[in-house]
């Protein structure tokens, strides 16, 4: 088996340390993520899914355990440094984009993350066709709104933009934290299909938290069930393909 691109070894996180309310949220998580994995994650409210993403992204350091990226111990690497190879899309469409900047400007910022940003006006012209083509892959009219301030977009368009910004530099790890949950069913299904196309075509490695069991089943090559701070099921390959909705309903 090839070396995992990202691995968690016996990760534990405590909250309210040294107080009467001290409790363990993640209770020894072990997870090897292979390059190209598209992992869907389900679990009841409070199971620890967002905490798991916080630990992977570096916004929360674990209390014990080790995190590896391409074989290197990055347990104490800051979230900012991890953002060079990892991006995350949140549930709230407002979180990923700058409201008083246009769609094009947001895309340019994302494309140039980590670089000097002096050439923005020229960059906008240079990249216009590329951004229009990219926006068109979302199939929601975003390509016609390149000069619109982000705050004037619909929630679905804004979330599609957040997704494009998170993936424009092809991160090694993409975290989708219920990124379709705030959208109406039709818009959510559209974004989910566009998400899957992008992940598949660009061979991205992605983890997606969802409460839509149908999406957890339909998409990805692997499905994790989290319960009370532990991974209680890890279905891969044929084991995932063979799962049914009623199987899943019995598990959570
Ligand atoms: N900073 C904190 N202090 C105290 N408790 C916390 C803290 N962060 C998380 N928790 C608790 O840890 C548990 C796991 O929370 P987490 O948000 O990871 O769950 P989740 O599976 O993402 O839930 P949901 O599906 O509702 O988003 C919950 O019981 C939550 O209340």
Automatic annotation (TrEMBL):
Protein's name according to its UniProt entry: ABC transporter ATP-binding protein
Domain ABC transporter: 6-252
Keywords, alphabetical: ATP-binding, Cell membrane, Membrane, Nucleotide-binding, Transport
Membrane topology: Peripheral membrane protein
GO CC annotation, single: plasma membrane
GO molecular function, one term: ATP hydrolysis activity
Membrane-traversing stretches: none
SUPFAM superfamilies, per the entry: P-loop containing nucleoside triphosphate hydrolases
Cellular compartment(s): Cell membrane
Magnesium in keyword set: no
Keyword Kinase attached: no
Organism for this UniProt entry: Lactobacillus corticis
């Amino acid at each position: 088996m090839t070396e995992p691109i990202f691995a968690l070894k016996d990760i534990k996180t405590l909250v309210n340390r040294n107080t009467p309310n001290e409790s363990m949220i993640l209770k020894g998580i072990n997870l090897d993520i292979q390059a190209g994995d598209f992992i869907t994650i389900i679990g009841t409210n409070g199971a620890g899914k967002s905490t798991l993403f916080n630990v992977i992204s570096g916004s929360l350091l674990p209390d014990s355990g080790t995190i590896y990226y391409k074989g290197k111990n990055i347990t104490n690497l800051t979230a900012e440094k991890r953002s060079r190879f990892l991006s995350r899309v949140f549930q709230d469409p407002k979180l990923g984009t700058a409201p008083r900047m246009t769609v094009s400007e947001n895309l340019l910022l994302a494309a140039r993350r980590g670089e000097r940003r002096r050439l923005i006006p020229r960059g906008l012209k240079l990249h216009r066709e590329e951004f229009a083509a990219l926006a068109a892959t979302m199939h929601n009219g975003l390509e016609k709104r390149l000069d619109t301030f982000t705050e004037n977009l619909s929630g679905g368009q804004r979330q599609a933009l957040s997704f494009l910004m998170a993936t424009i530099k092809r991160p090694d790890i993409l975290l989708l934290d219920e990124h379709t949950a705030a959208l109406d069913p039709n818009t959510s299904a559209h974004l989910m299909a566009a998400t899957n196309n992008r992940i598949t075509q660009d061979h991205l490695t992605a983890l997606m938290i969802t409460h839509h069991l149908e999406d957890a089943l339909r998409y990805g090559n692997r499905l994790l069930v989290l319960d009370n701070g532990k991974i209680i099921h890890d279905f891969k390959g044929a084991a995932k393909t063979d799962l049914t909705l009623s199987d899943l309903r019995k598990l959570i």
